[in-house]
Design goal:
Elements: E1 2-4, H1 7-19, E2 24-29, H2 35-47, E3 50-55, H3 75-84, E4 89-91, H4 95-98, H5 117-120, H6 124-139, E5 143-147, H7 151-164, E6 169-173, H8 193-198, H9 201-214, H10 219-230, E7 234-243, E8 256-265, E9 268-277
Parallel strand pairs: 1-4, 2-3, 2-5, 3-4, 5-6
Antiparallel strand pairs: 7-8, 8-9
Helix pairs in contact: 6-7, 9-10
Bound molecules: adenosine monophosphate (AMP).
Length: 279
């Protein structure tokens, strides 16, 4: 695996690969890699001849009281894992390389970024859309791969890519979970032993909500049941049942349902979701 910190050197190699007729899949990450990230790499390997992974902790997607300064940096282990998974290139740029004009975000995010985490984390999706835009501008892959774990982010990126990078295919992978159901996340490292023990209740609450929905329970009953599961130890940020394609209220035209929960466990914010056919 080649490691690139410099945009020009990366692009020279990408140009060589393209000249040889090789297709390129791109997996952007913020590092702290776990099996969820590696599932994206596995799909990339399946779909393309060459795989590039980026590790870049994007400052513009963190609020001013968020964990940018503490975000786990495990680059040595990340590099080993990516080598073991036969990734072709690792791109670890500086903020200067990604934001040569300074840390602004000018990409407009539509209404899909205004709900859920868009309310709890103002400016977050502008930062996400901007960094993915800048990365796609540099890498110009045939496809880019993201996780359904960050479902709203996936929709924001799909919309941005459809507008600015119609030639890039955006693919996604289902959420990878720990044995006890907790969605894998780099931020799970922040949990205390006690918090880690109760964290899987978030997924239990989602499963219960899906069951309630399929049993035609009202949103009030569904929400009350989820709150009951979460009442010990969690502080609820949002519990929503929405149209999975629009993140708006469910209508007769809705074909897929998204149940999306965000909670705090101590000071750690956890998000998770379940997507399923309306039936
Ligand atoms: P991050 O490093 O948290 O920015 O995530 C990089 C990519 O990995 C994003 O597309 C995430 O949605 C995806 N990802 C994170 N956690 C998981 C997971 N548990 N399962 C699948 N994909 C994930």
């Amino acid at each position: 695996m080649q490691t690139f910190t410099n945009v020009q050197l990366l692009q020279n190699t990408l140009d060589d690969w393209r000249a040889q007729g090789q297709s390129i899949a791109f997996v952007p990450t913020m590092g702290g890699l776990h099996a969820g990230h590696l599932s994206l790499v596995a799909l990339a390997k399946q779909k393309a001849d060459k795989v590039i992974v980026s590790v870049f902790v994007n400052p513009t997607q963190f609020g001013k009281d968020e964990d940018f300064d503490q975000y786990p940096n495990t680059l040595e282990q990340d590099t080993l894992q990516l080598e073991q998974h036969q990734v072709d290139g690792l791109f670890t740029p500086s903020a200067q390389q990604i934001y040569p004009q300074g840390l602004g975000s000018y990409i407009k995010v539509g209404a899909i970024g205004d709900v859920l985490c868009g309310i709890s984390r103002p400016g977050h999706f502008q930062g996400v859309a901007q960094v993915v835009y800048n990365l796609l501008e540099i890498v110009k892959p045939d496809m880019a791969i993201f996780g359904q774990k960050d479902y709203q982010q996936l929709l924001v990126i799909k919309q941005m890519a459809a507008q600015y990078f119609p030639a890039v295919e955006v693919l996604s992978q289902p959420t990878v979970r720990e044995k006890d159901g907790l969605a894998m996340s780099t931020r799970n490292q922040y949990l205390s032993i006690k918090e880690r023990q109760i964290a899987p209740h978030l997924y239990q609450a989602l499963l219960q909500a899906k069951q309630d929905y399929l049993n035609n329970a009202s949103v009030e009953v569904l929400t009350a049941n989820a709150e009951k599961i979460l009442e010990k130890g969690f502080k609820v940020d949002y519990l929503e049942v929405l149209d999975a394609n629009t993140l708006m209220q469910i209508t007769d035209n809705t074909s897929e349902i998204a149940i999306l929960f965000s909670v705090f466990l101590g000071s750690t914010r956890l998000i998770d979701n379940i997507i399923f056919n309306k039936g």
